[in-house]
């Protein structure tokens, strides 16, 4: 005869189930308490306020946590800069106040002046930008960061001449810096000063890998309409380093400018195989295929891109528009 449903076995099963549920609830409650404890502790430590603010996307909530740091004696200049960075985009006025307090607590920090310059730029306070960048240069005459920031701000406004002047100063401060040299040389080329650009790239010999240097020189020739010289230089680059994806990509562009679609496609596909995370090679190939009327090939190329990068589908369709 079967045991009734309310018998001892069933009661033991119920007890185990309730005990298990209580255990789960206790674990959940403990985890919740761990996350809530910082909210109930006396919050007088800047690190705690910054941590909570970083986890808070809403700018008004961030203001609640960060603005009081201005009067917190425990907050260092670095703490105040971090707080200002968190408010810079959404609340530049409050970020400005925090940065000024950081400057008061540590007047020698170049980082504070650079931050002030970025904030003042957001606030469209040109005189403040200039003052902060000038102070940064005075505090660290051999530091190129102020000039590089000035170049960034100038380029954003379309002032390429101003950006070039700033990059020239940065290049003088740190003449051996590869990133600064490449950026300066490219801007000189963009502003139609090929001889000066080539001089800058020549100064990077021994610091920039030979294949990369050949690519930069090839780009200068291409910008000047000297397509065959550009192709020759870029061919030398990919011969020097067959695995240099950027070299093959730029070679593909150079061949396209000369109207050699087959050579362009070969170089672009090689660039894509060498760097499968970069959409530029196949997106460029797709555009070339559309222009030359090879629509079936363009559809296949775009389909390959969409399958490989489903999260970038809208951007891919914008890059390669099919009729």
Automatic annotation (TrEMBL):
The chain crosses the membrane at residues 21-41. It comes from the Bacteria. Gene3D superfamilies: Tetratricopeptide repeat domain (1.25.40.10). InterPro entries: CellSynth/LPSAsmb/PSIAsmb, TPR-like_helical_dom_sf, TPR_rpt. Signal peptide: none annotated. SUPFAM superfamilies: TPR-like. Keywords: Membrane, Repeat, TPR repeat, Transmembrane, Transmembrane helix. TPR repeats lie at residues 211-244. PANTHER family: TETRATRICOPEPTIDE TPR_2 REPEAT PROTEIN (PTHR45586:SF14), TPR REPEAT-CONTAINING PROTEIN PA4667 (PTHR45586). This is Tetratricopeptide repeat protein.
